[in-house]
Amino acid sequence: MLITVLITIISVGILSTLVYLVSTVRSLKDRVETLAREMIDFHTYVDNQEVAHARDHDKFSDDVDIRFDRVHRKLGKNQEEVYQNLDRLKTELPEKIRKVIGHIEFARPIDNTK
Length: 114
Hints:
The protein contains one helix and no strands. By secondary structure, the chain is mainly α.
């Protein structure tokens, strides 16, 4: 009978240890599943952030390109106007200088007291 009691005590001890191990394994399994879901959520968040950042960068880059094109066109127009004005001045300036010199040479004095 003593052997039966000892076997029962040992069986209860082994059984309680097995129950503890099974519950620990289940707890660990649940924790691993939770961590896996959190990792997937984190990767999804990071991917979404990368896509948003790339989209913002592309939009900014396009805006900068458009602005540079506008400035380049305006500078081109202004440059053409400046060159046209310079060409006009090159042709008109000598004639204006001749007229002014002519007025100076043939001008009558305002003061007739002399």
